[in-house]
Design a protein that fits this description.
Mean pLDDT of chain A: 83
Number of domains of chain A: 2
CATH topology of the largest domain in chain A: Rossmann fold
CATH superfamily of the largest domain in chain A: P-loop containing nucleotide triphosphate hydrolases
CATH architecture of the largest domain in chain A: 3-Layer(aba) Sandwich
Number of helices of chain A: 10
Low-confidence stretches of chain A: 1-17, 325-330
Strand content of chain A: 25-35%
Oligomer: heterodimer
Radius of gyration of chain A: 22 Å
Distance between the termini of chain A: 27 Å
Strand content of chain B: under 5%
Order of helices and strands of chain B: HHHHHHHHHHHHHHH
Number of strands of chain B: 0
Order of helices and strands of chain A: EEEHEEEHHHEHEHEEHEHEEHEH
Structural class of chain A: alpha/beta
Helix content of chain A: 25-40%
Strand order of the largest sheet of chain A: 6-7-8-3-9-10
Shape of chain A: globular
Mean pLDDT of chain B: 83
Number of strands of chain A: 14
Number of domains of chain B: 1
Largest sheet of chain B: none
Number of helices of chain B: 15
Radius of gyration of chain B: 25 Å
Shape of chain B: globular
């Protein structure tokens, strides 16, 4: 599936970054375990940027990432990461890739800073440089003095941070993050999401983030891939996907909501009063300009207007349901 | 290194080191982790003490032909009989340096090979459970294999750790012992005629290193828990050794013990039988009983199943490598 032309603009890349157009290119990529197809005919081209990988449990998201990293051997098709064939250039294709797996993975007995330094060295960094960068990255992910404790003794949140640190220590061009906010407290989650979001914007490091938390994906990513039952269901920018979705606007009036609801109903739009007092409006227009004009015409009080508030969530459910031949639950 | 204006992060844009460096990193990390254990440090101390014993033995032997040397002075202090024995021994060594120096160093290195071998086995017993098992239980393989490394690189890195252990507890002390004893040697003949036994000792050391390293890796990868790994290792070591020691055990049973097989290789490589036979046949002034004892000891030191033992060791290496590579999958 070719990328949509309306991809967000790329940040200025640091000198030395490869000029590969796509971070991931797959052609009919498949992986089967016996009779079960975990991944089937996945063909896509993913441009640089921040990409969210969505899908229900067992959809094949992790298998897709593992195939790209050569942790699983694809049974059919081809794949290139950063322009390098994952089978023919097995080692080289992973030189500029970082990976933070979903499950706990660490090297027992090493302190946090030793572990991240070691990971840097495993990617070919000289010892001194790896140690320096390990401390910088650990600062960045919010690890304090606990970096001097063995990783085995870390809490889930600390393990998440150290996993992210080891994925970034060698300054990769693309980083695969599998559920990076699992086990983090709200402030830790905010910190990590802000960091992940800035990786592409400020450093030009592309991010492929796999998460069940759609709001995290919506907040951080500019592009989404939806996988269900091993098949590629959707691949587009979030903006395009939202536009393809039925237009829903949520309005939170500053004053009485009844005049709002009446004015909106008078235009023929479907209006539902939500339990939180907001008005949910189904519209035919792509913009909210008509609502502003309506407010002006009826001298309505100011209101907070949110376009397509749960678009990704609904789209996700719809994609999965369409694949099953069912109607989406909404 | 450049700094990003937003994120306070230095950049790394240099070409990464090659795969050799990454394998060495794995090997050295393993050694560093081992160094932290007290038992390993204790074994190292014992191994290097063994090396210093070689040096001491070689030094005492070389003093036998040193006029006015330490041994002669000591013998003079003890009495005329001791003085005469030392003088005779010195004369024999001076007349038959090939037989004496070669023979004595063969015996020294042969004895040291037992010490080195047993210390290596103890070191591997303490190392084996943690070598791969720990990586498997903490899912560290994903960390390794998601980097520019393959299973073979991981294997070679871990092999490097084991080889490093064996070099530290066996080869290093052996070489140091020989070097120190040669440093104080009074005659060039000591260097010339001890060099052959040294090469033989190193050859056996090399064979044992390859075999032990491969078996240790295979055993380490076989189980996920340290307990199973230790049990498997001890079983391979002691149970099969005990079976091989049975006098009427068939050849295929004895070949199941890698310690027995390595023993056969040791006999063949060191050629102790030939050294003792030559001493018995060539050296003058030895009484009949001593000559007979030397000849008997030489016959006892003959290898009886070298080919079979070598083939069995080869099978061990191949089998252990297959187990390792089969088990080495990210989970």
């Amino acid at each position: 599936m070719p990328p949509s032309p309306s991809s967000p603009p790329s940040p200025t890349l640091p000198a030395g970054r490869p000029a590969a157009d796509f971070i991931i290119e797959t052609d009919r990529l498949g992986k089967t375990y016996g009779a079960h197809a975990a991944l089937a005919d996945v063909t896509l081209q993913v441009p640089r940027g921040t990409v969210g990988l969505l899908g229900p449990n067992g959809a094949g998201k992790s298998t897709f990432i593992k195939c790209l990293l050569n942790l699983e051997v694809p049974t059919s098709g081809t794949a290139r990461v950063l322009g390098r064939d994952i089978r023919q250039d097995a080692r080289a294709s992973r030189e500029r890739i970082g990976y933070s797996p979903e499950r706990d993975c660490h090297i027992a007995g090493l302190a946090g800073c030793e572990y991240v330094t070691y990971c840097g060295q495993l990617s070919g960094m000289p010892m001194r440089l790896a140690r320096q960068r390990a401390h910088e990255i650990l600062d960045l992910v919010g690890m304090g003095q606990e970096r001097y404790r063995p990783v085995d003794t870390y809490s889930t949140g600390m393990k998440q941070r150290v996993k992210l640190a080891q994925a970034l220590v060698h300054d990769p061009d693309v980083v695969f993050l599998d559920e990076p906010t699992n086990g983090l407290d709200p402030s830790g989650r905010e910190h990590i999401l802000a960091l992940v979001g800035s990786l592409w914007r400020e450093l030009g490091i592309s991010v492929v983030m796999c998460s069940h938390l759609l709001r995290d994906i919506e907040r951080v990513c500019d592009r989404v891939i939806i996988i269900g039952h091993g098949r590629l269901l959707e691949h587009d920018t979030i903006a395009n996907l939202k536009n393809r979705h039925r237009r829903v606007v949520e309005i939170a009036p500053a004053g009485a909501r009844e005049p709002f609801a009446a004015a909106l109903r008078a235009t023929g739009a479907g209006v539902v009063v939500l339990p939180n007092g907001r008005l949910r409006v189904e519209s035919t227009s792509e913009s909210v300009e008509w609502i502003l004009q309506l407010m002006q015409a009826h001298r309505l009080p100011p209101a907070e207007i949110v376009a397509n508030p749960d678009a990704l969530h609904e789209l996700f459910l719809k994609s999965i349901a369409d694949h099953h031949g069912n109607e989406p639950r909404s | 290194m450049e700094t990003s204006p937003g994120l306070d992060l230095s950049r790394w844009r240099e070409a990464p080191h090659g795969v050799g460096y990454r394998r060495l990193t794995i090997a050295l990390a393993g050694l560093r982790q081992l160094w932290r254990t007290r038992f390993f440090r204790l074994l190292l101390a014992a191994a290097w003490f063994g090396g210093s014993l070689i040096a001491a033995g070689g030094f005492v032997f070389s003093q036998s032909i040193a006029t006015g040397g330490w041994l002669e002075t000591l013998a003079a202090k003890i009495g005329p009989r001791a003085e005469a024995v030392v003088a005779t021994a010195g004369a024999v060594v001076a007349l038959y340096p090939d037989t004496c120096v070669h023979g004595v160093f063969t015996v020294l290195f042969w004895a040291h090979s037992f010490l080195g071998f047993w210390i290596s086995l103890l070191a591997l017993t303490s190392l084996v459970p943690s070598l791969i098992t720990r990586d498997r239980s903490s899912h560290a393989l994903v960390v390794y294999l998601s980097r520019p490394l393959t299973s073979s690189d991981y294997l070679l890195g871990k092999l490097g750790t084991i080889v490093g252990v064996l070099l530290l507890v066996w080869t290093g002390p052996l070489l140091l012992g020989w070097l120190l004893s040669m440093l104080f040697a009074t005659d060039r003949d000591f260097v010339v005629y001890s060099f052959g036994p040294l090469l033989r000792a190193l050859a056996f050391n090399g064979i044992a290193t390859v075999v032990l390293a491969a078996i240790a890796l295979g055993v380490s990868a076989a189980g996920r828990s340290a307990r199973i790994t230790v049990l498997l290792w001890i079983c391979l070591w002691t149970v099969f050794s005990a079976m091989a020691l049975q006098p009427r055990a068939p050849a295929w049973v004895t070949r199941m013990s890698y310690t027995h097989n390595l023993g056969q290789v040791r006999q063949e490589v060191f050629q102790l039988d030939r050294a003792l036979g030559a001493a018995s046949a060539e050296l003058p002034l030895l009484d009949r009983n001593l000559k007979d004892s030397l000849a008997r000891a030489g016959r006892k030191a003959e290898s009886t199943d070298f080919g079979g033992a070598l083939a069995a060791l080869g099978a061990f290496v191949v089998g252990a490598s297959l187990v390792f590579l089969r088990r080495l999958r990210p989970e």
